[in-house]
Amino acid sequence: MHIGDSLVEKLLRQAGVDDDQISKLHEQAAQEKKALRDLALQNKLISEAELTKLYAEEIEVPLAQFAPQDIDKTILLALPERMARQYRAVVFGVGDDDVKLVAMEDPDDVQARNFLQQQLGTNIQIHIIDPALLQAALDKYADENAGSNVGSQLTKVIPVEEQEKDDDVDETSLTEDSPIAQTVNLIIEYGIKSNASDIHIEPREDVVITRYRIDGILREVDKLPRNILGALVSRIKILANLKIDEHRAPQDGRFKVEVNRQMYALRVSTLPIVDGEKAVLRILNESSKAANFEGLGFWGEAKTIMQHAITQPHGMVLVTGPTGSGKSTTLFSVLSMLNTPAVNISTVEDPVEYRIPGVNQTQVNPIAGMTFTNGLRA
Prior knowledge:
Layout: H1 5-14, H2 19-32, H3 36-42, H4 48-59, H5 73-76, H6 81-87, E1 89-94, E2 100-104, H7 110-120, E3 124-128, H8 131-157, H9 160-164, H10 179-193, E4 198-203, E5 207-214, E6 217-225, H11 229-239, E7 251-259, E8 262-273, E9 276-285, H12 293-296, H13 300-309, H14 327-338, E10 346-349, E11 360-363, H15 372-377
């Protein structure tokens, strides 16, 4: 959304930013030729969500507040995905008298409002929405169609002749613009947009199964031709800088991708099984910030116990649970709460999933003698 500098200054004062900080912001804006809003966000003087809330109150437009996963599919699809992304707007509900509730990033965009009225009718109520929440709502389109989209898109990407070839891997099948590379990109992209924590690519006797772990539950997304397994796994190995000619031993690596202007780290594990070589990709959002206890789901007595425990001078807190239950995320958040210049924090991890600036993180490496025991003693 576009907000003029004078209005941004007013909103910053309402948020408690003092005159000295605002003066420095104006100087930086003059030097770097950037908008005051962008610099305020960049310098973390205010969050985008808070700025949006204050702006909504100022222009007297209701603020859209909803959980993206609760949007009904029929309501969402009242506005086609292509139009929703182009005009940065979503339909998120229906009010009294069948009024369609529409959330827009910029309610002052007259062209977008005119189009929405043509598409949805005049019986609509415009809301303003925090850009992060809007993006989550736009990703809901992918959530609704993840399985069918992957299947249909992969059918388009992999030519029939590619599907019918023997299970051989050559250099041309692994290049950046090859059908196999596009297939891997699609699988990863839809996994991220579906909010999956893991992607499993598993060979079976006559097919390759693709499964996503969403909310802790593995869901089968698609079945691919069995004979592309070699090229598929080799492409993933190239991305993760692993040995493509090693098929008898497990390997681990990682690489990064950017989706919707957010950076994701993918931790790759390959494992030889009876039907071939399996690959698992763990998805970690590097752009996400550490959550507070409420954001992690702690409340009441559990929250009180945790707050007391992490401030003790010595002791132990055990965080346990199955894959994808939030162990690493919880520890990442707790360490971020404790991470100040006055505190020395060291970790021994296998693997290092989240990178925390200011924390001494050590990766376990048994081959080099770097074990949990040695690391703890050091």
